[in-house]
Amino acid sequence: MKAVFLLFDSLNVRYLPGYGAPEWVCAPNFERLAKRTMSYDRACVGSMPCMPARREIHTGRMNFLHRAWGPLEPFDDSMPELLKKAGVHTHLVSDHHHYWEDGGATYHPRYNTWEIVRGQEYDRWKGEVAAPDVPARIGKCDPFTTPDWINQHFVNRKYMTDEADHPLVKTFALGEQFLRANAGEDSWFLQVENFCPHEPFVAADKYRRLYGLPDGGPDVSWPRYGAVEPEDQLDRLRREYAALVSMCDDCLGRFLDAMDELNLWDDTLLIVTTDHGLLLGEKQWLGKCKMPFYNEIAKIPFYVWDPRSAAAGARSTAIVQMIDVAPTVLSFFSQPVPKDMQGLDLSGPAEREAALFGMFGGHVNCTDGRYVYMRAPDPDAALFNYTLMPMHTRSFFAHDELRRAQLVPPLSFSKSCPVLKVPAKPFAVNLDNRTLLFDLKNDPQQLTPLEDEALEKRMADLLVRLMRQNDAPAELFARLGFAEMETDK
Fold it and tell me: Is the dihedral of CA 425, 428, 430, 435 positive or negative?
């Protein structure tokens, strides 16, 4: 038995055929993929953004209730490592540069073997002391970027003169190389993970020509996170994004060609998804993390080919999430699923009532498929990281943070290990801290928030129940105002 997990980053579901893409988006291989797989129409993010989602891939449980972005913990069950210990060869190919920063440094060693591709975004790759030429551009807001990062990005781009130099293309080529080297072997798991179509949107010219994009002029490849500004660049921004989606599509097509050629479909599980989407001007927002997680962010594409059921060209309305990847893959290789994993084996009959999702310190959200409830926090209320790996995205915890840390009794899933409880700040400052309720059936674009006290009470009860099932810390309920609100026990 073999398994392949293809992971994109920031892939907006509304730019894909079968999920409502406009006709002008060119992505025929995603359409081809849908014909070979089960497509899930209610797939939803879990923990946002990048590395919190990857912790879910490994552990099969939520990250954002207990900790911000950070490494795998010593007590975590890692799906690739469990497979490795069971004799299944696990291999990671990725250009996702956060893996070689402090906050992601424990993920890739869990695999038997791994290959990294350098150069995405502000990856500290090529060393040039002189500042590069940076075109006039629309930059992202703090704290998500700095002038040094922008300079590093444009240094990196100097070394990507051909399409074959692009990290996206290199990553998929290495994934295909693994397929060809190991197609005749048994018991392996391959994860091919690329950073695209995450910003900055840098696509080869032939994909940009599909969308009539101009040469020169202001660089709009790296949108600012926050409110739309200026409006007149939105159309070009969306087309730059679509060009990169088309480049992803072309790489996907070559990978599917290799699976066809090597006759891998009969005994190979394939899962294809993304960690989250991205707002591209909808509701006057750009990006993620600084605004409520509308469906442009929270709804994700999710494709599964399971040779045991051989469901192809089918669609499912089951609610699925990233935490389902680990138990599904473990089950496929006939391995036990650890008790601390809370995801579902997608080959089984069980379906979830609702999905919980959010970001550390931000809104806590739930959806039952019909309604979505976005509960805003009190930004001044207590918030703590629970961890044995005190690292932020690109740094250790500061001395001042650690001086205020307490060693507290074990969490329910920390394997009887006490953990550090460290006062924390939210991962990002939310620019719209309203509590929101939407009817996804009658208002799929989420343009008109509902004001329905009885419905909000029902969804709040559901949210509280999901938080309890996920062992949310006590202070998080108070942070969301539930201490003063009547909820069903």
Answer: negative
What gap in Å lies between CA 470 and CA 61, rounded to an integer? 8
Q: In what order do the strands lie in the sheet with 279-280?
A: 226-227, 285-287, 279-280
Element (H, E) at 384: strand 384-387
- For tokens 């038997």, the residue is 112
| The two three-digit tokens of residue 389, written as one number | 């790996």
Quick one: residue 289, left, alpha or beta (phi over 0 = left, psi -120 to 50 = alpha)? left
Could you say which DSSP state residue 283 is in? G
Q: How confident is the model at residue 106 (pLDDT cuts 50, 70, 90)?
A: very high
Residue 316 phi/psi, 5-degree rounding, is -130, 145
| pLDDT tens digits along 407-453 | 999 999 999 999 999 999 999 888 999 999 999 999 999 999 999 99
Concatenated DSSP letters of 95-114 = --GGGGSGGGTTTGGGSSEE
Letter for the amino acid at 7?
L
Q: 204 in helix, strand or coil? A: coil
H-assigned helices in 269-310: 295-298
**Cα dihedral across residues 347, 350, 352, 357: positive or negative:** negative
DSSP state for residue 231 in the 8-state scheme: G
* Residue 144 scores a pLDDT above 70: no
Q: How far apart are CA 221 and CA 233, in angstroms?
A: 10
Closest by CA to 384, choosing from 254, 267, 472, 483, is: 472
Cα distances from 351 to residues 37, 123, 261, 343, in angstroms, run 19, 39, 35, 10
Contacts 24+ apart (CB under 8 A), 438-445: 438/371, 438/372, 439/370, 439/371, 440/295, 440/367, 440/369, 440/370, 440/371, 440/372, 441/370, 444/295, 445/282
Q: Which of 138, 254, 119 is nearest to 195 (CA)?
A: 119
> The pTM is what?
0.96
The model's confidence at residue 101, banded by pLDDT at 50, 70 and 90, is very high
First to last CA, the chain: 44
Instruction: Quote the CA–CA distance of 326 and 307 in Å, as a whole number.
Output: 17
pLDDT at 141: 42
Answer yes or no: is pLDDT of 138 > 80: no
Q: Which of 403, 391, 312, 429 is nearest to 35 (CA)?
A: 312
Cβ atoms of 34 and 18 closer than 8 Å: yes
CA dihedral 467, 473, 476, 481 (to 10 degrees): 70
- For residue 153, give the H/E element and its range: helix 147-157
* Rounded Cα–Cα distance for residues 48 and 482 (Å): 22
